[in-house]
Amino acid sequence: MPDSNKLSRRERQIMDILFGKGGATVLEIQEKLPDPPTPMAIRRMLQILEEKSQVVRRKVGREFVYTPRQTRRRAGMKALSHVIETFFGGSLEDALAAHLGRADRAYAKEELERMARLIEESRKNGN
């Protein structure tokens, strides 16, 4: 399975664009990149991402459309697991406490109730 932790900064930027749009052409990627390189350089980076099994391409008309190989949800779960392991010693409790304790983010009552329901369902399922 592809390891997104082994991507360069620019490769991660491209992947973020592809996940955000669901897929994009070289020129669409170029429009979204900060301080964008040439289309040829973007094509080369996409080729490298193909070699790393991060993206697939398909021909649509005269252009290629590049899409992430894995779903946004699966990539997000892998990234979240990596963050929890790396920054919180594998403790979901510590990660959640840090996130809920942010002063810059207020949670709607419905969000907190949904989280409580998910925790309760997890308990019932033996987790």
List the keywords:
2 domains; 6 helices; 127 residues; elongated; two-stranded antiparallel ribbon; mainly alpha; Arc Repressor Mutant, subunit A; 59% helix
Q: What topology does this entry show?
A:
Blueprint: H1 9-21, H2 26-32, H3 39-51, E1 55-60, E2 63-68, H4 72-88, H5 92-100, H6 109-124
Antiparallel strand pairs: 1-2
Architecture overview:
The protein has about 130 residues and is mainly alpha-helical. It has two domains: about 5-70, Arc Repressor Mutant, subunit A (Orthogonal Bundle), CATH 1.10.10; about 90-125. It has six helices and two strands; from the N terminus they run H-H-H-E-E-H-H-H. It has helices at about 10-20, 25-30, 40-50, 70-90, 90-100, 110-125, and strands at about 55-60, 65-70. Strands 1-2 form a two-stranded antiparallel sheet. Strand 1 (about 55-60) and strand 2 form a beta hairpin. The chain is elongated and about 50 Å long. The two termini are about 25 Å apart. The model has no long low-confidence stretch (mean pLDDT about 90).
